[in-house]
Write a structure and sequence with these properties.
This protein has 424 residues and is α/β, with parallel strands linked by helices. The chain has a single domain, classed as 3-Layer(aba) Sandwich (Peroxisomal Thiolase, Chain A, domain 1), CATH 3.40.47.10. Helices cover 33% and strands 20% of the residues. It is built from 14 helices and 16 strands. The strands form three sheets. Strands 1, 2, 5, 6, 7, 8, 9, 10, 11, 13, 15 and 16 form a twelve-stranded mixed β-sheet that branches. Strands 3-4 form a two-stranded antiparallel sheet. Strand 10, helix 12 and strand 11 form a beta-alpha-beta unit. The longest helix is centred in the N-terminal third of the chain and has 16 residues. The chain is globular and about 60 Å long. The termini are far apart.
Length: 424
Amino acid sequence: MSGRGPSTRTLTPPGIEPFDAAVTGIGLVTAAGVGARAAWDGVCDATAAPSVLHRKELAGLPCDFMYTITGLDTDAALGVAALRLMDRFSQLAVIAAREAVADAGLDPAVWDSGRVAVVIGSAHGGLPFYDAQHAALTERGARRVSPKLAPLTVVNGAASSVAMDLGVHGPSQAVSTACSSGTVAIGTAHQMLRAGACDIVVAGGAESVCSRLLIASACQMRAVSTRRDDPQAACRPFDTHRDGFVVGEGAGLLVMERPEHARARGATVRARVTGYGASSDAHSAVAPDPDGLGIERALRTALADAGVDGAEVGHVNAHGTSTVANDLIEATMLRRVLGEQPLVTSTKAMTGHTLGAAGGIEAALTVLALQHQLVPPTVNLDAPDPGIPVEVVTKEARRSTFDHAVKTSLGFGGHNAALVLSRA
């Protein structure tokens, strides 16, 4: 029996009123740049060399490289004592959260901490630390296993670390829906603000999984690129010669507020989160619905939630992973729902596929695209796939005028999510 329903259902769920969450702060830690300004400049510069490095932890695997953050001194940023209590994905989340809160002009020392929430997505949590502890157990015995295994590896580690660092006493939640985790986290924040559960939410995603076990499995699945001779050009979304994604690490967080709260304190609003939709494919643990009906349902729900017609969308930051089937399925769905006018990009060729962090990073980049009225290029797109039926920006960033943009995400297990973001 099929679980599919009609793909054209567009009504907002009963009782849900339109709601615009104000985005007042951005924090980004990526391989394209550390800090929102550096990351934005990095993804917009098609001539910049992506920060893709061969990793000794992955030596001997068909894919032994990943997008790696360089120039970040976590010891200086967080202190050695704090680092002992956080895996790298949590460290990146705390650094991004501090930037986002400062960017929003907020002071955790004086805010009403009970009205502040944290929602952070991650697909794998502290997997590298788990790998190391398993090796310690196997090679040296149980007495060599760290008592901090649980707090450092659990998926909620980033959310709890950010809440402790900022002194947040409102809800602190983790979202884990594979590669759509960051997008679902922002959507969850939108719903919390709409419901009046809080006034401020720090939301997005964080991930750092230089894990030999995970990458070996991805190689066996043929999900990742194996271009070991040219790793910087390996990730090539929408290109005829794409052969898989390249894993990256990073964190992307937004400060979102109830609009009246932002107005009352005179905050500068960068953009608005106006719509959110999520769905399940109910199709496969690893492959998307071949007709794209699941992600279509999520996108149509987000558009209806925002009260925005597909023809009004001027830009899409696509999931665009550089895998053969996924890029085609997503692009075909975008054309079906939005028509031919949006300028589409995938920024993963500059950041890598950051898995559970991807939606947070890419939503933040979409906010910046709305602010600057500039669409970043899809780098490494040298031979556009003629079957891709949307206009993909390549070679250089493109100026445009648009009031609404979309961020789409798909995750293993059929977890789909979409956001509509609008100009302030």
